[in-house]
Predict the structure.
Amino acid sequence: MKIGMRKTSLKKSLRARTSLKRNIVHRAGFKMPRGYGWVRNPKKYMYNKVYHRTTFSIFKVFKNMFR
């Protein structure tokens, strides 16, 4: 598990937002309400929860600097 600053990837970020699978799921109406990720994939949910608590983004650093 990573601890510290995350490296941002513009390429991956763009692909996640324009994904065909994402569009199909959202248009078909299979959306889960916020906070119900553990229902769809509990293993991924736990990994993401720990990952986001142990790492931080460069954008968060900049936001706190200019506050």
